[in-house]
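Explain this record to help learners:
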Amino acid sequence: MKNKLLLLVFAFVLIHNNGMKAQCASGTVRMNYYHVTSGAGTYADPGLGDIEYGFCLTLNGFFERQTNWAHGIFVAWKDIPLGVQISQGLTGEQTSQHGSRVWTWIDSLRARQLNLPGVGYYVDDGDKNPRNNYGDNGLGTPNATFPGLSPFCFVANYTCGAPTLFRPWVTVTGDGTTGAWKNPSCSGDVIKSSSGGPLNDGILVVCGLVLPLNLIRFDGYNKNGVNYIQWKGIADNEFSHYELEKRNSNSTAFYNVQNFNSPIVASEHQEHSIQYMDSQIDNSINYYRLKMVEKNNTFVYSKIIAIVNASKNSFQNAEVFPNPADETVNIGFPDAKALTAYTIEILDISGKSIQTSTVNVKGSNQLHMLDVEKLGTGVYFLKLNKENEAGKMYKFVKK
């Protein structure tokens, strides 16, 4: 790339902790079975059709901080993937390890009615309202064990929609948040599946190609002649790196700007943020996309974003209105003492040219009406090119 010494580029990574901190509970979650209509349920061969998978938590221990006993074992509302139904597994309802109370299944409807934090198993004294009784204090104190308890099992059902990666998460709480004690010392330990499934890693991939990455945000803006591109994501240990690619409005080919290795985080499900600052702006509009690459070199592209840089030419402003537009866009041209030819080009958000026309302008207060009725709803760019001058870009929305 030319003028490397003049290229101002920097990137930084921010790591956000999503609150996965062990407080009291210890145990394991295993995906103990799965059924798919077809496919293997892997990254290479996703499962398709009707999906069912079962998973179980084995509770090994619970630290009874300030006499706070184990009380809830459930899938939190926020951890239930969109479209998934959670129901009771084969084991889980049982007498508590210590005392006469019972671990009882509370379905989603009842859990909502009781304002519980998720669907699953709660210690109950027989009235189906676990909020008014104490938990299971196991054997020993303060480090209680639960050798007599069977695994707490769940069943998840899903009909294929969007490509999805399933890794069950189960939360264990003390009764400071779900029972009678008012002690919040053990407000929730999240334990994710680590074994079972097609590759014995606790993961099931369904309904299409899925990268081990959730791209939460990708956008950008221009300020003082510099383009800022920023994105957020959550990656697991199969993700390799990002490649930021760029092109301008005079080119159809993207080129690599810089690679960004997968950020080092304390756990797989921590959010990371990356920002790139690009001062090498050589046109009025620049397009960017991310190439997201797995460790096995499988990759997908993000959406394309466009950043307009109005300060890169001295083209006298025209007026483009109304915005949003319905059937026509009006272009009010700057005064022209001599006959001046303008090329009018409409591009979509990816930079693809949709239509081109030419108009000759002379005099003041010249207005041209451009028919956009056949354009689909969305965001477009109107590019005006004038004889012997760099063009200027105007953004508008088609209703």
User: Anything to note?
Assistant: The helical segments are 108-113, 175-178.
